[in-house]
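Appendix B. Chain record.
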Amino acid sequence: MTPDRPDVTALLATARAALKDEILPALPEERRLDMLMVLSVMGLAERALQDSTDALPLRQEARLAALAGEKADAAALARAIRGGDWDELARSEQLYRALVEDTRDRLARANPKYLAALEKGNQG
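Structure tokens predicted for this chain:
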């Protein structure tokens, strides 16, 4: 039998809620931005913990491999872009789609509310 372990994600969510609901309103105005930044980072950590497999780096590696080959890295891709290797229309569209997909992945973790608002705005 495994010993009980606290659910770190749940603990983080509880701490975040207490900070937001109880501490933040009591802070002087000049300290609220600091607390909002802490809450934002805690939310990012919570979302990263919820994705226990942390598939984001794997998806990023797969996109990079599809664009620049298995052995390529982001720096090599950047050099190729600067060198004009992606200037042809079909290739630049492929690159654009991959970069948009990567940006959406990153926003989903860093600021899902912004991403939802952005996508809602694009639908209307």
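Further analysis of this model is presented in Appendix C.
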